[in-house]
Amino acid sequence: MMKINYNSFLFLGLFCVAACGLGNAPIAGKWQAVAFYENGQSQNVSLDSVRLELTPELRFTFQSIGHYREAGPYRLSARFMFLTDTTVTPQKEHTVKVLDLSPDTLKIQMRRQNQEQVLFLARVK
Predict the structure, then answer these.
(1) Domains by residue range for the chain, with CATH
(2) What is the pTM of this model?
(3) pLDDT band at 105 (very low <50, low <70, confident <90, very high)
(4) Cis (ω within 30 of 0) for the bond into 90?
(5) What's the mean pLDDT when you consider all of the chain?
């Protein structure tokens, strides 16, 4: 099974969405990863523990395989989300492009070492 470096998962990588040009669906909420693509190819990886939570107060928490975790503030601009991981020193800012946002689906695009990565997330009820 392929292991993903989730540390940079948010490298390329969601609250006032209408004002930010992302449509009418709210981005704040709890999201569960359901599919992962790299360079257009579906990757067979376990996504059970990959979660993203975005709060209305513009804070995020990202969890992935093992005990990996990122957290901190985020901001939106047009179709981009900028997430600042404050759990490390120095702090790291990751940028992701929001490709699609609906009431129950979030699709984000990232780049890692010249590889295009796309993550599909489903809203957790």
Answers:
(1) 18-123 (2.40.128.280)
(2) 0.79
(3) very high
(4) yes
(5) 85
